[in-house]
UniProtKB/TrEMBL annotation:
Residue span, Electron transfer flavoprotein alpha subunit C-terminal domain: 208-287
GO biological process: fatty acid beta-oxidation using acyl-CoA dehydrogenase
Family, similarity comment: Belongs to the ETF alpha-subunit/FixB family.
Protein name as it appears in the record: Electron transfer flavoprotein alpha subunit
Origin species: Caldicellulosiruptor owensensis (strain ATCC 700167 / DSM 13100 / OL)
Co-factor note (free text): Binds 1 FAD per dimer.
Cofactor: FAD
Record key words, sorted: FAD, Flavoprotein
Residues that bind FAD: 220, 245-246, 259-263, 276-283, 297
Amino acid sequence: MEHVIFVPAIYHVDEISQLASLLSFIDNRIAVKDKKIILYLYSNRQVEDKDINYLKTLPVSQIVIYENDLFSDWEQPYIEAITQHINTIKPHAVISTSSDFIKSILARVAARFSCGFAVDCTDLIFDESTHNYSFLKPAYAGNINAKISVKNSSIVFATLKIKNVAECSFEAVDSKVEIVESLFEDLKPFSGKIKIIEKNLAQNIDNKLESAKIVIGVGRGIKDKENLKYAFELANLLNGAVGVTRPLVDMGWLDKEYQIGQSGKIVSPQIYFAFGVSGAVHHIYGIGNPKLIIAVNKNKDAQIFKIAHYGIVADATSIMKSFIKAFKSRLKGC
Ligand SMILES: Cc1cc2nc3c(=O)[nH]c(=O)nc-3n(C[C@H](O)[C@H](O)[C@H](O)COP(=O)(O)OP(=O)(O)OC[C@H]3O[C@@H](n4cnc5c(N)ncnc54)[C@H](O)[C@@H]3O)c2cc1C
């Protein structure tokens, strides 16, 4: 009997590279004969050819792309679509990335099937003989890994937070993949029950944190919200992105979209700058394995210096300004 894993994904939310990591991770962890991994990609615009070609190389049995204007910034259409697709596919497990948006969708879908839902897991353990799933998830402020066993659930629902894209290598498969680009016509989720009165969308953030090769990490050591402008200027000069520690988000300096770490985003830059970042484990969890870490901190004993390749004991904002000046004059000469 086939063992079917259904991976629902959202084109404008999920980075294709993260999706690749997730799929190869699932492929690696679930070693069972007759495994079938099915990816459904929901999109409100045409999926680019380069992304389709990349997806075709991934270790999946089937890819279906659903394009429909309804797949926009609110959950209901996805909930209806994914529910219908689960009823058709009848998967053993539904596993997705850990974006806030998909978590809010899958929580409601899981409830419809009266199943539990394990979120933000960092590892998956699959028992080949029983086909039982369990997951690991940081608990007690990240000090232990809790094991979550899934019992008596007709379908296993989970989201995975994969630490490092580079760790998840896979052998490209040849594209025996069926791509169905179809319009989902019988999507009637609203039927008068829900009326949109007003749409108040968060400011469109174009920071590309997850795919950035250079990340300018900023922590409480920059002291003043005003100083964030230097981080953005530096990111702009280096074609990078800005990421921050949790306190900056908690203080309302920036949106959660910018937060790196255990309860934020997982990034995978080649170069990570840490300006006024203490180096707490919850933050470092999210920075991947950069080839180069350059840290600036006033405290010579700061935790961040234990992992940095270059450390500068100085005021973070002053060094940001000096870097901007130096890179500007360098770039002028190019
Ligand atoms: C369950 C849980 C989940 C969490 N998830 C996350 C997460 O996803 N992401 C995250 O970031 N945190 C997370 N945290 C919080 C985390 O533990 C740390 O508290 C946080 O990362 C610290 O942020 P910080 O380094 O900016 O601030 P601080 O710890 O206050 O450190 C500021 C640093 O700046 C230095 N400094 C001060 N003045 C200057 C100056 N003028 N110039 C240069 N350096 C200076 C200080 O020496 C210090 O090292 C989580 C915590 C818990 C319990």
